[in-house]
Amino acid sequence: MDFRHISIQGVGEWNEDAVIFRQDLQIYGVVDGATSLIPYRSANGETGGRLASQLIKKYFDQLGVEDGHDLETHAKKANAKLGEEMRACGIRTDRKSELWTAALAAIRIHEHHIEYVQAGDCMVIATYRDGSVRVLTRDQVAHIGEESLAIWKQGIEQGIHTKEELWDTVKSRLLQNKEKMNTPEGYSVINGLPDADNYLEYGKINRIGLAGLLLATDGLFYPQPWPVQEDETGSPEERLLRRVVAEGLEGYAKWLLDLEQDDPECIRYPRFKRSDDKTGIWIRF
Question: Cα–Cα distance between 192 and 209 in angstroms, integer?
Fold first, then answer.
């Protein structure tokens, strides 16, 4: 097997992504932390999103080789650790606006199958020796994000052409979305509360014909032009995977960074940050 991984900081003060890379246990994962609406800073100045992603990474980094739990159990244990840390830091965990949260996608490679667990919008995408692409996970945040992006696009249509002004149009909706975390009407995310355990997705696939696996945070997602270009074929996940196969993980990331640099106001490719943190693991079998 061949492994490649990257974690590139975006425009934020901290890289709130993290990489889980335990070759001895054959456990690999990507984590995308999200800062609370009510700001929190550690003694080192770290944001809640940074603390959440690093805490989850630390949990997996400290696993012993004798630990035989499945990935779903490990994700629940990491979630509980996050809750303990927030309470120790004085976070009022009954207020969603104060919670440190994180999306997660992790896999464990077994002899005959691949085990995975996921929350939020981190993704796992597989490719096979026949060239086909299979998306193993569901972007749990996409439907919420599309509602907010619709407001962003409406602002562009009304003549707003700076990212700061566009942000003002959508900020209240983003605040409302936080109240929907880990509810049937909302989205899944690891947030230190027991409710998060109810919305983890977990499963396994066999390794027959498997050629590669890509794990990615949303900062690596294939950019969606607006208006949509009719010549684009395949789903965004398929286009992402095929580009990584063709150019490598680093090559794809460089292409994406250049594209973002050429669209600083987030108009041609509507998004909420000029450049988000980008973390991925590319495994070839």
Answer: 37
Task: Find tokens 């901290």 and name the residue.
Answer: 14
Closest CA to 211 of 125, 115, 104: 125
pLDDT value of position 256: 98
Give the separation between CA 140 and CA 123, rounded to whole angstroms: 10
CA pseudo-torsion sign 164, 166, 172, 174: negative
- Mean pLDDT of the region 203-209: 98
Give the total residue count for the chain: 285
Q: Tokens 């390794």 appear where?
A: 207
Give, as one character, the DSSP assignment of residue 274.
S
DSSP string, 171-234: HHHHHHHHTTBTSTTSB--B-SSGGGGGG-EEEEEE-TTEEEEEEE-GGGSPP--SSPPTT--S
List the beta bridge partners of residue 123: 216
Residue 167: Cβ-neighbour burial (10 angstroms; 0-12, 13-18, 19+): middle
Q: Is 107 helix (H, G, I), strand (E, B) or coil?
A: strand
For the chain, where are the E strands, in sequence order?
Answer: 2-8, 17-22, 27-34, 101-109, 113-119, 123-128, 133-135, 201-206, 210-216, 278-284
Tokens 């080192």 sit at which residue?
A: 44
Please list, in sequence order, all residues whose beta carbon lies within 8 angstroms of the beta carbon of residue 205, skipping any fewer than 6 positions away. Answer: 113, 114, 116, 126, 134, 136
- Report d(CA 185, CA 182) in Å as an integer: 8
For 173-202, what is the mean pLDDT? 94
pLDDT of residue 230: 65
For tokens 């909706």, name the residue: 173
Farthest-apart Cα atoms in the chain, separation: 60
